[in-house]
Specification:
The protein is of the alpha+beta class. It has 17 helices and 19 strands. A seven-stranded mixed beta sheet has the order 4-11-10-3-9-5-6, sandwiched between helices. Strands 12, 13, 16, 17, 18 and 19 form a six-stranded antiparallel beta sheet that branches.
């Protein structure tokens, strides 16, 4: 039993360590930081929120909902452009670190690019340090000396290690005092899609040290980004528009967490594939703050989220049918795709069907003496999956505050997913597949992994069934020999 504050608890208060990056989509994080991601995924065994969607344009619109539970427009006026009407953020915004501070936590907010500070570029910022550990004064002073050293270094140290070293020192000091630390790294990723890969090894080493040193034994680690790239040429593509809206959000809990909070943990796992937003992160952080390590806590999480609420805790069940409108996401920020049924006799559907049949026959081609060449018997169903119109029309924000969307983009949809179900002969096999159709190149792309056999093949594949090297053909092969 550990004593920590009023009353006894089974575990001390949980630390919260949030490590953030600017302008990295979930996919870009995985592409550019492969070693770090592999360590987070395979060694730390954390969880990525696969349905995590932004709610506005730019970093403030990503971080303010996490830290306050509200949007900028819902909070007191703080824009520099409003001059005498604007408030400093210390008192105007209900930052979550204030709640943690009231509960005995040491707090920190660390950001490495003062010239584009999240709360200073457009907003009034703070008239006094808002937290116990605040790096902005250091970076303002250090920035004047950066030109004396190699680019992206200060002395012999890569500048990206300044924050990681500082965070490491904070977390190792005063271990008896719980901590809420939010660090945000912009310098390498804000204006480039490639520079960030230069810190992959160091970031992996930092994560390893957090684990080896025991810091993660009592810390909820959150690794995140605010949004995908907004200004690169990738952003002008359909893929880029989707990635802008789908940032990286990863949680890792202490190894004992699942045992102490089985309901909360199970709900979190179920929710990680459901549509979630920065508002939900705020609600989840509030739940973490009030966890006492007692069994009664976990019983609370059996009560589902309020289905009408914009904020939903990840520790409580989130409805599977949650929509962008329910989650507080405006249509042009919604990355959810739309389904449309297609006429099965249309030319595009028939082309897709033959592409699927040809792919299956290509897979069995090297074993044609054993496996019959399949032919299309009939098309059972077809539908298309495509981005919402408002998303494709969004070009940029037409004001510097990111509040007014410019919906003048005429680029149009360049890729559509066509899902099709067919029946083949011989054997009456039913195959379902998702094909990507490039509308500009007028061609299809299909991978083996996207083909499913959705009815039983029974003994139809007996000629490959007992051969380990041919197991992958079982769902495709109709054996010629009886």
């Amino acid at each position: 039993m550990t004593s920590n504050g009023p009353g006894n608890r089974l575990h001390p208060k949980l630390n919260v360590l949030i490590w953030g990056h600017d302008s990295l989509s979930r996919n870009m994080f995985i592409r550019k930081l492969p070693q770090t991601f592999s360590y987070l995924d395979k060694e730390l065994k954390g969880h990525v929120l696969e349905g995590y969607n932004i709610v506005g344009d730019g970093t403030p619109q990503a971080l303010i909902p996490i830290l306050t539970g509200s949007t900028e427009i819902e909070l007191p006026e703080a824009r520099l452009s409003q001059k005498s009407r604007a408030h400093f953020l210390n008192d105007a915004y209900p930052f979550i670190w204030k709640d943690y501070k009231r509960h005995g936590y040491l707090t920190g907010y660390l950001e490495d690019a003062p010239s584009i500070g999240t709360f200073q570029y457009r907003l009034m910022g703070f008239d006094k340090p808002p937290v116990d550990y605040y790096l902005r004064p250091y970076y303002i002073a250090a920035e004047a000396h950066f030109k004396k050293f190699l680019k992206y270094c200060i002395g012999s140290i890569p500048r990206h290690k300044i924050i990681s070293n500082y965070v490491r020192n904070i977390m190792k000091a005063k271990k008896e005092v719980p901590k809420f630390i939010f660090s945000f790294h912009s310098e390498l990723s804000h204006d480039s899609i490639n520079l960030i890969q230069g810190m992959d090894v160091d970031l992996e080493d930092f994560m390893k040290d957090l684990e080896i040193s025991g810091i993660l034994n009592n810390t909820v680690l959150i690794v995140m980004s605010d949004h995908g790239h907004r200004f690169s040429t990738i952003r002008e593509t359909q893929q880029g528009k989707l990635e802008e809206r789908l940032p990286f959000m990863f949680f890792r809990f202490p190894t004992w967490f699942e045992k102490v909070y089985p309901t909360a943990y199970r709900n979190f796992i179920e929710n990680k594939k459901i549509l979630t937003t920065p508002f939900d992160i705020h609600k989840t952080l509030m739940d973490i703050l009030h966890m006492t390590g007692l069994e009664t806590d976990d019983q609370e999480f059996k009560i589902p989220n309020n289905s009408s609420s914009r904020q939903m805790s990840l520790f409580r069940i989130i409805p599977e049918n949650r929509t962008c409108a329910m989650a507080g996401i405006e249509p042009h920020w919604c990355a959810c795709l739309s389904w449309k049924n297609l006429e099965i006799n249309s030319a595009i559907v028939r082309r897709a069907a033959y592409e699927l049949i040809n792919k299956v026959n290509d897979i069995t081609h090297t074993n044609r003496r054993a496996c019959a060449e399949l032919m299309l018997s009939r098309i059972i169903s077809a539908s298309s999956l495509y981005p919402k119109e408002a998303l494709m029309k969004f070009k940029k924000s037409s004001d510097m505050d990111g509040r007014v969307p410019d919906l003048s983009d005429k680029g149009g949809i360049t890729h559509v997913i066509i899902q099709i179900t067919v029946e083949t002969n011989p054997g009456m096999g039913h195959f379902e597949a998702s094909l990507q159709y490039d509308t500009k190149q007028d061609d299809f792309r299909i991978n083996d992994s996207e083909i499913s056999r959705i009815n039983a093949y029974g003994i139809q594949a007996h000629c490959v069934d007992q051969n380990p090297s041919l197991e992958h053909l079982r769902k495709y092969c109709f054996c010629i020999a009886s």
